[in-house]
Design goal:
Number of domains: 1
CATH topology: Pnp Oxidase, Chain A
Radius of gyration: 19 Å
Low-confidence stretches: 182-191
Helix content: under 10%
Structural class: mainly beta
Order of helices and strands: EEEEEHEEEEEE
Amino acid sequence: MQNDKKKVTVGKPKTTGAIFFAPKGSTVPTSCSSELGAAYICLGYATEDGLSISNESSSIKAWGGDDVIVTKKESFKFSAMQSLDPDVLSVVYGEDNVTIDETTGEIKVKSMSNLAQNGVWVYDTIMTGNRAKRIVVPDGTLSELGDVTYKDEEAVVFPLTIKANPDATGACHYDYLAAETGETGETEETE
């Protein structure tokens, strides 16, 4: 293999939406071009920190120190910016905990002690050369809501950590990368 600048990439969000959530039991996409069903909610803008994937491994050692079982845990972190969006609020706090008064438009959010909300998480990105990449977490749990700050000249954001649970095959997530021909359906790059 030789050096090839075309194989180096950045990961920009897809301009039509990059972070999606659907309740557990929803159809899990199996390619970067398959349409997401009506169950999927777009979480809109994320902060400029983008999406980060953390990996943590642990091992069980035998007497004498040999690693006999090694496991890996994955988590996905991003900060959702659209803190006034009822769809985002329903993902963060749970659909049953967000109500909208149809008459006044007032939104009521009930913050419960139990954060766990399982579902399918999809992250759509555009790589160098306008090449689509989709990351799919078939069973992700909202495991942490970070500090939410209200401050002059700073967006109110929800820092979220999604724990990727292994599926029936043991996979925590799947990556789908479009062919180099560039048939991504995306025609413009983000700023």
